[in-house]
Model the fold of this input.
Amino acid sequence: MFVLQELSFMALLTSFNQLHPEITRSGITATVATNALLNINEMDLCNFQVSFLENWKIYKALQWRASIPFVVFWFLEFGLMSWSLWSLSQGFEAQPEDPRVDRLRENWFLRVRLSWFLGSSLWFGAGAWIVALTPFGVSYYAWRLEMQAKQILFTHPGLRHSFLGFLAGFDLNFRVLFLHATVRLLPLYVCILIVNTVGFDADAVRIWRAV
Done:
């Protein structure tokens, strides 16, 4: 995912080379750092728009192909919430009547496995948080590109307005089916992760306290 995202954003950045030779030579980051006025004409802007549109289509196609595991993951996370809420309602007190307690007492490797799942489970531990929040990294790339675009200085202010208006029409965030990995929705997804993580921990604590 990281590699695909980096490559697709590099493709978008190459479109800016159509605007001015200075961007081609130094790159957009170095160019905007100089605060230099760029003499960009209508044909330069037209070439940029054609190139950006083509690369944006590739960017979205790569995003869809890379989205399958994340969509499946979050679908399961939503489904696990009902069990997690039930687990939280049971509290953290020991439950000696749980059938898993006897198996844990008799098999040390099951206790080791449970300990590992507490911290590294793909659905409830650190692994879950890493996988779940990876799509939100796209928002950083989108923000960085937007900030750099706004810092490009045009000798013709009217063209700059058209340039920014054109870019505003393209959504660079990770949006596939029900999964909208945007900064605005990040608190909602974090709450779901917290509920599932604490719900699993509550279940494990009840068992551990009874062993």
Observations:
- The mean pLDDT is 82.
- The two ends are 41 Å apart (CA to CA).
- The chain has one domain: 2-210.
- Residues 42-89 form the longest helix (48 residues).
